[in-house]
Inverse folding.
C-alpha cells in the first residue's frame, strides 16, 4: 500500500534559494512482498531501501512500513545565474532527471521558473544570492560573468546549451543534441529497472582487457559491454542502458552485486566523466 505523508514544513529556505518540500513517500509491506519487487516498482534500489530504513537484513515482514523517499518531491524556484547543472549538483540529481521530471526539451531555464526535484539531497555549499529580477530572464550569466567561470570547475557544457551568438559553439552542441534526441526516440521493449552505474576501461595497469565471457576489449576498445551481477542480469543478455545505449552483458566484477552495473568506455577520462549515476536498464533479450 502506497502512502504519501505530508512533510513537517511546507516551505523552507535551502542554500539561500527558495525550495518547498511537497511530500514524503512510504509503503506498507504486504504478504509476498520483497525488497527487490518494491525497489523495481518505485524505480529505486535495494541498497537505497536498506539505507533509508536502517535495515540490518533484507528480510521484511507484512504490515511493516518502509520509507521509499525521505523527501519525495521538492519545488525549486530558479534564481539568477542558475543552470540545470548547478541545480543538479546542489540537490544530488542528474540533469537528465531534471529534464524528465519537468518535461524540458532543452537545457534552457528562466529566472522565476519552478522546477520539480524528486528525492533531492541538499549539498552544504555556500549559500547563493537570492535576489530575483522583476521579469523572467534566461538564467544565463553575462559575458563579464562567463569569463572567470572558464577558470573554475563549473560545467561549460550546460552554459553552451543556451542560445549562443557564435557558430562554433552551436556546431559543438549539435552532435550531442542529436544523440540525445535519437536516444529519446528509441523505446526498447523488455524488463526495465533502476541500477547504480559506474564506468571502467580496459586500458589500466594490471588489467587483462578480456571480459568474463572472453571479449577482448583491447582489440575493440569501443565495444559496448557492461559488467553485471549474473543473478540480476544474465551474462550474454542484450540490454539498453540509459545514457549509454545498447550493450551486451559480457563481464562481471567483484564489486558488482545486486542492482549495480559497470559500463565499458574506451579511456580513463571517459570513465571519470561518467562518475556514478542512477540509470534505467532494459533487458531486450
Amino acid at each position: 500500500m502506497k502512502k504519501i505523508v505530508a512533510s513537517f514544513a511546507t516551505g523552507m529556505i535551502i542554500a539561500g534559494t527558495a525550495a518547498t518540500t511537497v511530500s514524503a513517500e512510504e509503503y506498507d509491506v504486504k504478504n509476498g512482498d520483497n525488497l527487490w519487487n518494491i525497489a523495481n516498482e518505485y524505480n529505486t534500489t535495494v541498497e537505497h531501501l536498506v539505507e533509508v530504513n536502517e535495515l540490518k537484513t533484507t528480510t521484511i515482514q507484512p504490515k511493516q512500513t518502509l520509507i521509499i523517499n525521505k523527501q519525495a518531491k521538492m519545488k525549486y524556484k530558479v534564481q539568477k545565474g542558475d543552470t540545470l547543472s548547478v541545480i543538479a549538483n546542489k540537490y544530488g540529481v542528474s540533469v537528465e532527471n531534471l529534464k524528465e521530471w519537468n518535461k524540458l526539451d532543452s537545457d534552457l531555464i528562466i529566472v522565476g521558473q519552478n522546477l520539480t526535484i524528486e528525492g533531492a539531497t541538499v549539498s552544504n555549499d555556500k549559500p547563493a544570492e537570492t535576489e530575483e529580477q522583476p521579469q523572467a530572464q534566461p538564467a544565463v550569466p553575462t559575458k563579464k560573468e562567463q569569463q572567470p567561470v572558464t577558470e573554475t570547475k563549473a560545467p561549460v557544457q550546460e552554459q553552451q546549451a543556451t542560445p549562443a551568438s557564435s557558430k562554433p559553439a552551436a556546431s559543438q552542441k549539435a552532435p550531442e543534441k542529436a544523440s540525445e534526441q535519437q536516444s529519446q526516440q528509441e523505446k526498447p521493449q523488455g524488463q526495465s529497472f533502476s541500477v547504480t552505474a559506474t564506468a571502467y576501461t580496459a586500458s589500466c595497469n594490471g588489467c587483462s582487457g578480456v571480459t568474463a565471457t572472453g571479449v577482448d576489449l583491447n582489440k575493440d576498445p569501443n565495444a559496448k559491454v557492461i559488467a553485471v551481477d549474473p543473478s540480476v542480469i544474465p551474462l550474454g543478455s542484450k540490454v539498453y542502458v540509459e545514457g549509454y545505449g545498447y550493450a551486451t552483458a559480457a563481464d562481471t566484477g567483484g564489486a558488482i552485486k545486486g542492482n549495480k552495473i559497470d559500463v565499458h568506455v574506451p579511456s580513463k577520462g571517459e570513465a571519470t566523466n561518467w562518475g556514478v549515476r542512477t540509470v534505467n536498464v532494459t533487458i531486450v533479450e
User: Anything to note?
Assistant: The CA atoms of residues 136 and 210 lie 54 Å apart.
